[in-house]
From TrEMBL, chain A:
Family statement: Belongs to the glutaminase PdxT/SNO family.
Designated name of the protein: Pyridoxal 5'-phosphate synthase subunit PdxT
InterPro entries: Class_I_gatase-like, PdxT/SNO, PdxT/SNO_CS
Originating organism: Streptomyces hyaluromycini
Reaction catalysed by this enzyme: L-glutamine + H2O = L-glutamate + NH4(+); aldehydo-D-ribose 5-phosphate + D-glyceraldehyde 3-phosphate + L-glutamine = pyridoxal 5'-phosphate + L-glutamate + phosphate + 3 H2O + H(+)
Active site: 82, 176, 178
Associated pathway: Cofactor biosynthesis; pyridoxal 5'-phosphate biosynthesis
GO molecular function: glutaminase activity; pyridoxal 5'-phosphate synthase (glutamine hydrolysing) activity
NCBIfam families: PLP_synth_Pdx2
Residues that, per the record, bind L-glutamine: 50-52, 111, 140-141
Purpose: Catalyzes the hydrolysis of glutamine to glutamate and ammonia as part of the biosynthesis of pyridoxal 5'-phosphate. The resulting ammonia molecule is channeled to the active site of PdxS.
Gene: pdxT
Quaternary structure, from the entry: In the presence of PdxS, forms a dodecamer of heterodimers. Only shows activity in the heterodimer.
Domain of life per record: Bacteria
Keywords of this entry: Glutamine amidotransferase, Hydrolase, Lyase, Pyridoxal phosphate
Amino acid sequence: MTDAPVIGVLALQGDVREHLIALAAADAVARPVRRPEELAEVDGLVIPGGESTTISKLAVLFGVMEPLRARVHAGMPVYGTCAGMIMLADKILDPRSGQETVGGIDMIVRRNAFGRQNESFEAAVDVRGIDGDPVEGVFIRAPWVESVGAGAEVLAEHDGHIVAVRQGNALATSFHPELTGDHRVHSLFVDMVHAKRATES
Amino acid sequence: MSTIENQTPETGTARVKRGMAEQLKGGVIMDVVTPEQAKIAEDAGAVAVMALERVPADIRKDGGVARMSDPDMIEGIIEAVSIPVMAKSRIGHFVEAQVLQSLGVDYIDESEVLTPADEVNHSDKWAFTTPFVCGATNLGEALRRIAEGAAMIRSKGEAGTGNVVEAVRHLRQIKAEIAKLRGCDNNELYAAAKELRAPYELVREVAELGKLPVVLFSAGGVATPADAALMRQLGAEGVFVGSGIFKSGDPAKRAAAIVKATTFYDDPKIIADASRNLGEAMVGINCDTLPEAERYANRGW
């Protein structure tokens, strides 16, 4: 691919390496992003799994929160898994004091909704827009989406709870495709980045 | 779309256990002894806390047998924070581990910092839903723990000393042995497994991956932001800080500074800024004056 999009992975904390590998496998040029100037150079961004409170604090502390909000607001494609989903929610049901989000998806998330680590699980998940077999969903102290606004599309549910959502150029999953070796969700995101670039050229 | 099969969620799989540790990468896990300390750690940006009754520096000072913490104290900490909570069991004390699992801790540290309960066997960690982290001083030890079911490894260092020298030694040892395996051809891997006293399949996996099949953190002696960054630059995917924070003059400030330096471990300017005006560091112990019997790293086999 000569025209591969450059996709960053927010590398403040979390499973950055696995996302970099998954994005590269989905034919994107993947690179870690920690600073505002690095953010300015990417066509799209993944916010990885990790601890949402930690990622949020570090993003504010090192000045990437505001530029990130501005770019997401301006339509940069963004994909969040688990903690990343929490970061993309317009509202957290039960935030820690001072916990900020980037926003971008009109949804309310509940942190650790599926329980503590002992309740972490794997289950097959049908995701709208992903052809073939269900996605292997790896849910780790995972959040779920309590409710979505009119602009957000529900892509998947598990056990009656919303676990994947898309709104415009923002995509979020409660689960971790980056841990499975199945890169179809990342391919879907790379396609979103391609589509966004096509509208700009 | 497709038929609904395999819809029963499966808990306690290797993937969710190891995957949990993947989510902690790039972060700092802090020892805490009270709910108040746990909140300070969470506010400082810790990715998890280790709930224990006494930090290693106090275990050293007090002597005696060190055991699993009081369930009330662990539950108090679980209540106080939303980040993951880990707790320690004695080596081979699988009943302490069963108790910790029943309390709902997110990770169990089968730890040499506590007094070992079994001088031959570690706990069978496959038998648990809760994942385990274990210490290691070299690659063979790490792989034996992984063979027993550990889902995360930390280099041991020498806990409670505030001296990073053993942490460096153990991490360098593990990394050097991995690099050596990378250079082995298939014929040599069998002998390498025998030398490492580790299962051949794991040895082969490490040779192929060039890393452990689980997350590798560093522990035991990290006391400053520069210590944390040093361990990251040497290849640790994150750090445990035990006595270094709450035995220092200004724990909240030091905790936040170590978090910053762990994220920007390759940026000396940020590490410099994080290192300013932190107050007193914990008083350290020189490891070469430490009697053999007081070296925790020798516990476990």
